[in-house]
Amino acid sequence: MVDRYWTAFFVVFAYLVGVLDASAGDADPLYRACVEQCEKTGCVGEKCFPHCKFSSDGASLDGPWYMQEPLYLRWKQWDCQSDCCYHCMLDREQEKAALGHGPVKYHGKWPFKRVYGIQEPVSVALSALHLAMHFHGWLSFFILLYYKLPRKPDKKLYYDYTGLWHIYGLLSMNSCFWSAVFHSRDVDLTEKLDYSSAVALLGYSLILAILRSFDVRDEAARVMVAAPLIAFITTHILYLNNYKLDYGWNMKVCVVIGVAQLLIWAIWAGVTRHPSRWKLWVVVVGGGLAMLLEIYDFPPYQGFVDAHAFWDATTIPLTYILWSFIKDDAEFRTCNLLKKVK
């Protein structure tokens, strides 16, 4: 008898934990009833989905569900359950909007409207523009160094941070790419790739800020500075991917790393009186304000533009200014070293 009581207690406790962890949208009884009905009938109202046609043994009547859609839509891999959740979500949001209620989250996500199977089209477009801006900045930096600035007699570059900025450019483009992929289709794999690439970029940016601001040029010293930070970032990424994708903890880590590097850059620009310090200060202030958009989460306007989309939009001009500063820094340091040689 005691075992039965304990079993009942744990069942009830697990249910309560599940309800507490659920978002307001997917905890809605009407939403859940809609999803259950859709999975049985394959329809939400008058809209029906061909990949929800199943036989009594659970097999699809017309072959694999992804073969029942037009070729240009098969890439998105929406199955019966995800389509039911999506259209039930839209129906519930329309009903609540008619009653004057605002949007709520479903399964931890704001309700976005798809465009040709793309979950967050505005964020995807802005991530692509952000990637293009990084590529433009990195390419112009490459051309400046290898085709315009003078070199040493042994053909090596005067600028000691060339390789570090090349890695930064590649990590930045990688992060933008996976951001676009994640916002086009949110699944477990794309989410982890997006978060991991973003954390890797942030961690490396902090290392780069320390090395440049303290003018660390010796390779052994660079390794000593970078090693503990690389170990921490690697551990954090492994934690997110293999133990728990803790959004709150990840946000705290990213904010601390972001604020630390912004302060380092701002103080260094002021202390050294770098000729292009105003560009760096614009990036620092703009980056700090943009970071607030990531922290202050609000529902998407008209189902398309949310806080992250605004963040992507603000980082595009900041990226252009940052690469402009990087090129100025390369020219400034090269000129100073040439004067010392002469």
Question: Any overview of this molecule?
Answer:
Involved in the lipid remodeling steps of GPI-anchor maturation. Pfam families: Per1. It is found in: Endomembrane system; Golgi apparatus membrane. One of its GO terms (molecular function) is hydrolase activity, acting on ester bonds. This is Post-GPI attachment to proteins factor 3. With 342 residues, the chain is mainly alpha-helical. The chain has two domains: 2-98, no CATH class; 121-341, Rhopdopsin 7-helix transmembrane proteins. Helix content is 68%, strand content 1%. It has ten helices and two strands, in the order ααββαααααααα. The chain has helices spanning 2-21, 29-41, 80-98, 121-148, 162-184, 188-213, 219-242, 247-272, 277-295, 307-341, and strands at residues 43-44, 47-48. A two-stranded antiparallel sheet has the order 1-2. A hairpin with a 2-residue loop joins strand 1 (43-44) and strand 2. Helix 6 runs parallel beside helix 8 (247-272) and helix 9 packs antiparallel against helix 10. The longest helix is centred in the C-terminal third of the chain and has 35 residues, at 307-341. The termini are far apart. Residues 1-21 and 55-68 have low confidence and may be disordered.
